[in-house]
Amino acid sequence: MLSDFVDKERSIEELEGNHWPDPPVDSTPLVRSVHDLRRRPIKDLSAPNLARLIGQDVGLRWLLPVALDHLRDTAPEEAAGGWYDDDLLSAVLNRKEAVWRSAPDLARHLDATLHMLTDLSEYIQHYVDNFRASLSDVL
């Protein structure tokens, strides 16, 4: 598994060695949520939690491999169920090109997982097409 190197008993905060102060009292729910989620052990993060953190570019070094393992593990079930529109997949696909270029093995793993999926929503398909177009030389 891609995420075997990740100590899932630890939080992003612990793995980064970077303690964020509590968010300001008038912070948005998104900011409060991200602060909270990065303090939880990775093993306790749900797919929506992963999507939220990845969508904010938090802890990508550790969370992308975990998310890609999750997407690969659930791809056969998702493909069998038809229509596929997923927040975690959207969050992963929408990372900057530089993220994928710095980890081409992860990009190729994601591309292989994408080949397992059928009946993608038009939105997800658009993200897939952009991902593949921007990384065609890597994939």
Count helical runs: 8
- How far apart, in Å, are the first and last alpha carbons? 19 Å
Output mean pLDDT.
94
Low confidence ranges: none
- The backbone outline, from C-alpha atoms, is globular
Q: What is the SS-derived class?
A: mainly alpha
Structure commentary:
- The chain has 139 residues and is mainly alpha-helical.
- Helices cover 58% and strands 0% of the residues.
- It contains eight helices and no strands.
- It has helices at residues 12-16, 29-37, 47-55, 60-81, 87-93, 97-101, 104-114, 122-134.
- Helix 3 (47-55) packs across helix 4 and helix 4 (60-81) runs parallel beside helix 7 (104-114).
What structural keywords apply?
58% helix; 139 residues; 8 helices
